[in-house]
Amino acid sequence: MVATQPPMHLSGHCVCPSDPQFVEEKGIRAEDLVIGALESAFQECDEVIGRELEASGQAGGCTALVAMSLQGKLYVANAGDSRAILVRRNEVRPLSSEFTPETERQRIQQLAFVYPELLAGEFTRLEFPRRLKGDDLGQKVLFRDHHMSGWSYKCVEKSDLKYPLIHGQGRQARLLGTLAVSRGLGDHQLRVLDTNIQLKPFLLSVPQVTVLDVDQLEPQEDDLVVMATDGLWDVLSNEQVARLVRSFLPGNQEDPHRLKHKE
């Protein structure tokens, strides 16, 4: 992107005569290359983690939150339930969204619809307001499937009594009764307890990338980005964090390490 003559006519150079037309028709911008690079980097990192964990016989995974400044723009890439916010004097702006079984319900259900073998006959992909019991057989209950943003009714069948693909609400929501996040890195060998059902097919490593035009923002000296895992956001709101930051910064202007985490 920053080369004098990048390919595909992003800066006046073209590989073939039709390149400028194709790039223009697709609406491809320079920032799309950065977004694509971040998405590819997360995917490649996940593959490396998988190989290293397998070679070492270890298991594990994590979420990932990245902020990168390039050519007057701030790119925030998030895969998981971490969060980044921009704190300004009179504004708090979210720079990412959390990915949980609830927020990605339709994507997860769609995957189970296309590949039902991933559930090994042990789970139902349908969502119900509560866990169904034997007494519910034949009764009409509310439900929703991968193609639905609203709710509808169905008569309960025996297959509906299986454990739901996504169960619980809010912080208690779990994917296959195990994970509280729907995006992240690693966990290639993670399986549902006492089964051979893998969670990795449902755990997406590709991040959502938010772009902030810093030049248009006219940043001030006290503007900053707060990045943290759910350990912070589970107990404090965006506004509470912003108030803490604003109360702390004015009295620490001379401290060169005032923005660094201290144990």
From TrEMBL:
SMART domains (alphabetical): PP2Cc (SM00332)
UniProt cross-references to CDD domains, sorted A to Z: PP2Cc
InterPro entries for this protein: PP2C, PPM-type-like_dom_sf, PPM-type_phosphatase-like_dom
TM helices/strands, residue ranges: none
Recorded GO CC terms: mitochondrion
Coiled coil ranges: none
Every PPM-type phosphatase domain range: 1-263
Source domain of life: Eukaryota
GO molecular function (one): [pyruvate dehydrogenase (acetyl-transferring)]-phosphatase activity
Protein's recorded name: Protein phosphatase 1M
Organism per entry: Camelus dromedarius
